[in-house]
């Protein structure tokens, strides 16, 4: 270390270095802070005057340094420096300064213990710090002094204690401390302290299970930190990611952690790096990336052991154990070493008072025993696991249900196994009912995936009778597309979200211009992605998405079908099955391979995309068309032809699964000229057909920019509708279109569209002043009854766990639209215009949307890959 030059006022200079070092530490720049603080200590070695001032500054430097060392080198190094500070205090005379520094040392020691999971021990120290500051604040007010410095310190220590109470689920105490901290910060105009308290309150709400409100607090803190102290965004990102994982948004959590980890590593923030790696491992585990999950967990564990954080290290070890236990469960051979590790880790976690985590390790051990036939041992292990507490993470609760179901199955009790699955999915549903925002509602399905798969497999094992078909249908409706079984409540877009969506729109246009001009786009693409994520996260903190409807049963559906047939597809492993409701009967048919159907659907989709351009050379068109017809024929033979005797010539309502959501059904020979609608679930279809149709009037026709055929198309369509309102290119602005969509019966939008695979709710239609996003259309107060999207690939494109299809059309259906006509593949401008002219001609003649579209598609099915979604 460079020895500083002698100065005229070493104590004053050291005090200034402490101020700078503390500021760097507050912004998580611990390495910089450590260097500055050590310079201050070296300066004090030269001081021989003002012994009290010298000792005071030395103690302050040591306290701040202790925290920096604990973060970058380990708890023992931090506590060692803090013990030095405590020893130095004994050299101060009795009085206010000695009391203040003693209180600060207590506070710092409490925080250092909190950081490594020794919560109860740390609270004892922080209680002393809080009591001191409360007494000091009362004296300061009584004496008429400036309370600001005392208030700042009191806010800090209240926030620290509130965080700690949250970690041990003493929620009332946590909220009490954090609310008081925020009130004091607001009263005394200390915005950064208020933001820190808000961040902490988000953590407490997350631990209490109120994820929407937790995410709202995080976004409030995010806005404040960006303006006041961007260095704090790193820690906030870790907490946001943990909340995302808890509701199944593991891909989004993974992306966020991949953003913050490089900077955390660069700054060598030991505890935060380890926690970020731990949660990155948890996200990878949920996504099925076991290699990344193990690598992240092991790295986190090594860091935490070095830091002297046994509790956190044990939690990281639990992630690695989950990887190994999953592999052991899937193996046909028992794994005594993994079982032994699970039991040892459960004991260690219990000793550390991490009871939820200890239960999870025990459940993992029980599941391995049940899978390998050791039912008595499994049952004994589960008896050790009491009913999960209210605050246990939802994935822990679902795994416990799954283990109980598998144990019942191992004992030959299928009824008990299905009862566990039903109870688990109901519990997950109650959690979903509290969620706000489309992505949050759909994300929760991840945690019920294994329970749903188990239930479907068990039902399929019981034969192919009508009774089995009926049970299977009910289970499919319990597990799939839960997002669409809500009556959406009227929501408003707050100013922050509105501003962010406007920013996304502006960046989208700037990016398009840059691409057209051949300019570099990397920086714009990064800004756009960040802005999209911010807007989406703001949407998560809404009030609950809507009022849940009951899950439909076959008895509910059959009377509504009339002379139509419903085909509900399901997958179990690589086996595809169809449940058919037609003619008052319910039957099932086992089909072929899921993988084969998926590959056929993928190849057909690629061929249709290749056929889209308006001016393909005829020889190329013939070759691609022949390939597309072959794939359509194969898919038809796999999916529909085996059902011919069940469906006859009836109109179809299709409930797809997985990759089948992108199939343009009118292209398949069985559906040629046959009215066919695709729906996310039978439950969603039932309620769109029952919905009261009063209150919607008129026809809206919108023409976006850049479509050569759109001018004639819109004018032509207007001739079919007397009451049509036209918005030409110049008038088709985002705000005008959104206003015009409200309460209209039929809306037709001819505009270039683009599906956003990484963020489906920012799939868009291009209007004259920028993009109109699915995120916005889904919030129209009175959604149109029918919407026609004469654009590319805006049907149900992105399929999340639980067969939750999201995209532009999905946002419309979830927001209350009854029927959506959209393309599932690319489509040329000319072909789109001709198809839509035929469709509207049929509508004007009195045909229903499903019939009108079927007739329009039949003219040239390969180049008109439109689907009818919803009620039809």
From TrEMBL:
> Where does the signal sequence lie?
none
Reading the lineage from the top rank, the first entry is Bacteria
Instruction: List residues of the CHAT domain.
Output: 630-856
User: Do you know which Pfam families this protein is assigned to?
Assistant: CHAT (PF12770)
Q: What is this protein called?
A: CHAT domain-containing protein
| Organism, as annotated | Saccharothrix espanaensis (strain ATCC 51144 / DSM 44229 / JCM 9112 / NBRC 15066 / NRRL 15764)
